[in-house]
Amino acid sequence: MLTLIAQAAGPLCAAAVARAMVVYARRAGADPQLSPWLEGRNHLHPALHRVQDAVAANPAHDWSVQSMADIACTSPRHLGRLFREHAGTAPLDYLHRLRIALAREMLGNSQLDIEHVAQRAGFGSGRQLRRVWHKFDARPPSHARTDTKTAALQSLAPSIGAISSHCLSGIPARAAPTR
C-alpha cells in the first residue's frame, strides 16, 4: 500500500502516511538501521511526546527550544532535562536528526540542489545543512544522492539477473559457425 502511495503522491507523502500509521517505511540498503523518526520515542512522558509529535509533523518549521518548551508547558531548561533523561539527546539534536533525515530523503529522491534541500528541510542555508550534517555523518551530503542510487541498483541487481536469465532461457544458443 505504501508503494502505491509513493508512486501516486511521492515518497515524502508515503513516509508521512507510514509515520501516521506508526509503521516506518521499508529501508533501502543505504538507510540507517534505526529510523530517526522513531529514535528517542520509547518513553512514556506525555509532554515530551507532544513536543516530538509537533517537531516530527513539521521539522522544517522555525523551531526554538522556547517554542518546543511552550508545547510541553515547561521551561526550556526543564525541557532539556526531559529530553536528555527520556530521549537520550538534547532538543536541538533531536530536531537536527529529523531535519537531516528529511534532507537525506530529498537528496535521494529529487534533483534539488543543496540550497533548496536545506531550505525545505528547515536549515537557513546549505552551509548550515553541511555543518549540522557533519555532526551525524562524516561523508558530505552529496553522498546521500549517490548512496540512494547505488542501493537502488544493488536491490535491483538480483531481480535483473533473474529476469535476464529467465528471458534468455527460452532463446536457443547459436551454433558455432562451421568452416
Query: Uncertain segments of ≥5 residues (pLDDT<50)?
Result: 162-168
The pLDDT mean sits at 82
Number of helices: 9
Fourth-tier CATH superfamily name of the largest domain: Homeodomain-like
Describe the structure.
With 179 residues, the chain is an all-alpha fold. The protein folds into 2 domains: 31 residues, no CATH class; 114 residues, Homeodomain-like (Arc Repressor Mutant, subunit A, Orthogonal Bundle). Helices cover 65% and strands 0% of the residues. The chain is built from 9 helices and no strands.
Features:
179 residues; mainly alpha; Arc Repressor Mutant, subunit A; 9 helices; transcription regulation
Secondary-structure map with pairings?
Elements: H1 2-9, H2 11-20, H3 46-57, H4 65-72, H5 76-87, H6 91-109, H7 114-121, H8 126-136, H9 142-169
Helix pairs in contact: 1-2, 3-4, 4-5, 6-7, 6-8, 6-9, 7-8
GO molecular function: DNA-binding transcription factor activity; sequence-specific DNA binding
Keywords: DNA-binding, Transcription, Transcription regulation
Domain HTH araC/xylS-type: 49-147
